[in-house]
Amino acid sequence: MVASAPHYRELAPAGRPFQKAAVGFVLWFLGRAVAAAATFDPAVQADFDQLPDWFAFTLEVIPNGPAMVIEKQDRGRVRYTSRNPADGLPVLRFQFKHLAGAFQVLTFRESSAVANASSRFVVDGDPAYGCVVIRILDRVQVLLLPAPIARLAVKRYPKIPVFETWKARLKLYIGMLWTQGRGQ
Amino acid sequence: MKAGNDFAFTCPAKVLCGRLALDHLPVELVERGAKKPLFLFDLTATKHSLPRIVHKALANSGLVMGVIDYIPERPEPDQLRDLREWFLKSRCDAVIGVGRGWVADMAKCLARFGDGNEARDFNKALPPEVFEQTLPLGIVPPADATGFEASSHLETVFPESRFIQFMPDLVVIDPRTTIPRTHSDAIDAAVSALASTVEQAVLPQGNPFIGIYAQAAIHELASQLAVTAESPSRIAAVELAAGIAYAGLSLGDTVCGPASRLAQRLAESGTISAANAVMLALPVMLQSMPVYRKERLARLLGLLAPLERLGATDAADNIRAAIGPLLDLFNRLMNAAPERYVSKLEAAGLAKTDLDAYAKHLADDGTDKGLVRRALSRIWSGTSADNHDREVIP
């Protein structure tokens, strides 16, 4: 029977388990890739050198969605964790305002530049470091993903010889197997 | 500004526009300290499953939704009392109106003084000092929005007055709620929005921000309306919806305009739709009242037909040249579409030939208002064609 008169009811927030799992998986995959790329790729290493030691950046969905935390420790060591950054670390937070927006970006249907223009996420921290982090993420996505998908994810696809790309990609995937992070 | 663009703009209401605008709502509410928003849905919104769409959009937000749905177009007094009682018992800390008319007005009233200690009579005008404690207020205009929802007016209670306190904090324009369900709904809403926006653009008490929205709306509506009428498509409907949304944003003092006031009275007679009434009333008012900025109107309506091409330099010529295409557009709508336009006009005692004669009359001589007055008098009185001496300017 369909109600036809106004009435009051309360609805608990629904869940989006598929989207949450998909976003969590991509963040896990990306996080390990960043940590692995920092061990061998000169461009990623150069960008990490611009960040201070004992510094962390996060990619997370608010209020309680999946998160990826990358910590830069001393001597250029980079670690990935999906939990909160260690106490006392200065943190740069990229916060997606909602799961649907994160899903759009992390499934490469929307580039990070367009997402930023569409107000999908907020950056909490030093914007100068934010630019460095975006460069790192772009570089890792180029190495990690096949070119047609990576072109959707980054604003400008760099010119890298095919052989170099595949060599770096192979190193990256092997490196991801050995990457260790706090709390893993 | 295009429909596909997602953007946020604060003016001072924060406007969230785009594909995932509804999903942004929880973040904005939490920023304003809300933990349990109350959503009001009118009957149409409920039938179109908007409660389900909104609930889905709020997934993973952690916010519990209070929902009152199936609110009728004209609630009975005891239903209004129930609404307020439910609101007070629910202890909700924000109010979001999803719908038009009473729902938007109720959301404004509940957010602005529903939490007060004494009951208010919604049918009486209130002085600004009663607004003591306010809650975050959001408005989600539906497909058949008129623009009043996002304004500082109470459409159903005292539409001719503005209270800045009723200006919503958030306006969410999301395609999931604003795309018209049917072709004729889209045209209806677009015609109404076009006429209202033209009036807004030429009223002297506009401001630059509203003017920008008005120009964007007129450009969007003028370029899409005829296309939609002749070859309906979903893309055209989306573009029309964008134009309507901009028109809504530009609604500042429109309802204070004489044309809209006249149109309101015409529409209340029940024989003609509000959209047609505004379209008919606006040119009459433009002809007869000096309050409008006629040169500005000519410039705006020049979007419909480039005046430079016509070689018209004098302002009066410009106006005549500009109004003609507007009426042509209206006639094309009558021819291409919706039979109900014709039937409603005929029911009101106004045949299409009258409009043709009216357009010709305006093109020939803009000074004699006899025909216009007669035509409007027939609508005004329902049947009497002889009642042409009646004053049509309220």
Provide structural commentary.
The complex is a heterodimer of chains A (184) and B (394). With 184 residues, chain A is of the alpha+beta class. Chain A is 46% helix and 17% strand. Chain A contains 7 helices and 6 strands; from the N terminus they run βααββββααβααα. A 5-stranded mixed sheet of chain A has the order 4-3-2-5-6. The longest helix of chain A has 21 residues, at 17-37. Chain A is globular, with a radius of gyration of 18 Å. With 394 residues, chain B is of the alpha/beta class. Chain B is 53% helix and 10% strand. Chain B has helices at 21-31, 43-47, 50-57, 77-90, 102-113, 175-178, 183-202, 208-230, 234-249, 258-268, 274-288, 294-301, 307-310, 315-336, 339-347, 352-364, 370-381; strands at residues 7-10, 14-17, 37-42, 65-71, 94-98, 137-140, 153-154, 158-162, 170-173.
**Percent of residues in β-strands of chain B:** 5-15%
Regions of chain A with pLDDT < 50 over 5+ consecutive residues?
none
Query: Low-confidence parts of chain B lasting 5 or more residues at pLDDT below 50?
Result: 116-126, 287-294, 298-323, 336-342, 347-352, 361-394
β-strand number of chain B:
9
C-alpha termini separation of chain B: 36 Å
In terms of DSSP E residues, the strand content of chain A is 15-25%
Radius of gyration of chain B: 21 Å
Q: What value does the Rg of chain A take, in angstroms?
A: 18 Å
Give the neighbour order of strands across the main sheet of chain A.
Answer: 4-3-2-5-6
Sketch the topology of chain A as an H/E string, one letter per element.
Answer: EHHEEEEHHEHHH
Strand order, largest beta sheet of chain B: 1-2-9-6-5-3-4
The shape of chain B, in one word, is: globular
Give helix and strand order of chain B, one letter per element, not per position. Answer: EEHEHHEHEHEEEEHHHHHHHHHHHH
The oligomeric state is heterodimer
Mean pLDDT of chain A: 82
